[in-house]
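Case 472 in the screening queue. Each case pairs one protein sequence with one candidate compound; here the compound is iron/sulfur cluster. For every case the pipeline is the same: read the inputs, emit a complex structure as tokens, and attach any notable structural observations.

Predict complex for case 472.
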Amino acid sequence: MSEARRLRVRVPAGEVTINPAAAELIEKAEREGVETAWHRHLEQQPQCGFGLLGICCRNCMLGPCRIDPFGYGPARGVCGADADTIVARNIVRMIAAGAASHSDHARDILHVFELVGEGKTAAYKVTDPEKLRAVASALGIPVEGRSDQEIVRDLAHVLAHEFGKPGEEPLKLLLALAPKRRKELWSKLGVMPRAIDREVNECMHRTHMGVDADPVNLLLHGVRTSLADGWSGSMMATFLSDILFGTPKPVKFAANLGVLREDAVNIIVHGHNPILSMKIAEVALSQEMQELAKKYGANGVNVAGICCTGNEVLMRLGVPAIGNLLLQELAIITGAVEAMVVDYQCVMPALASLAECYHTKLITTEPKAKIPGAVHIEFDPAKADEIAKRIVKLAIENYPNRKKERVHIPKEKMEAVAGFSVEAILKALGGSLEPLLNALKDGTIKGIVGIVGCNNPKVKQNYGHITLTEKL
Ligand code: SF4
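Case 472 output:
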């Protein structure tokens, strides 16, 4: 039996992506008998109709229960919850998971920020004191005549309370930064968030058996939890990343799978947290590591990013970006990746068995995100440089294991510009939003659209984003 015949399904590569580089590598995967998310998606067909509609519930041991969407079978679960209640509960639990993930990422960055304030790490420092002072001032923390370290300590203290402060007072970041009219509306609806962890916790409580059965009331709490994440957790992560690593400025970079190099050690950083990826990039691009790579027969070390952590290093260091979620497996399938270093979120468990088919070392670094089969090197911000060096060396030492006959790096790559932080936009406009607002008022600019999100094998890769952008 040939390798390719081991796959139970075949993916029509040209139909599932508009990226020729991705199509090339899906075909390579099939020739080599390895599966991708597209194969697993096909194998899942037909996906569970109850799951797709959100009308199954296993929130208690009386279940699992499911509602018949056609009206012939059960209309209520054992406890009496109907389809509206079950759907609302399921959405609220998804919101809880998303808010918990984003905001826990903020908590990890805050931990490093606290270490900086206490002088307990030499690996991280305040890179943007202006931003530090701007955020502190917005929260009412005195900045005049004070050192960065003093301000960091006070700011860290205030932000730490965003997660679990007692009382009914809304979140401080939201109060300080959200527009007045939004805050009035949220107050009227009773959705002003009080503390991040509290809202996530309350999602779990309300959706438990026999608690909140009112779908509107449930969804309003989902809104409150999202606001806690958006206006505090996620915003905190961005602010602290800017303070520690620098507020992004427009930067040119190269993107797509063609950024991998045949002649260099390729290290991919993947996940969401810049605390790790910035260090890996910094160490990998150092003269010492570039020289070490030469001793192993490579022409230096190349770092590339995937998903949000890739975005963090590209915005601040101009590190090339491979792309988003669906390219993580394809990057390994090039056969040219010595190490994929991951933290958390959007990291497919499939990477471990896939890496075994090539010479790639999949390195997990987070105690809260391990993958069976991966090499686990726990990242400790207090020893960041030492650990980053160990990881980069492991990748370099792996270069001689690359099987040259299996390497195929697509040619596709393009130049792009990223790094449009609020500060960078304001600077480009001459320090005020006035020119932009005037252009909106007189109709020169019809509107502003944020296109946010990632890929899903359910739809043609990148088609939605690109088509929408072109139409706009
Ligand atoms: S909470 Fe109600 S609908 Fe959900 S599993 Fe329990 S009994 Fe069934």
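Case 472 observations:
- The chain has four domains: 3-49, 83-245, 251-415, 419-471.
- The CA atoms of residues 1 and 393 lie 38 Å apart.
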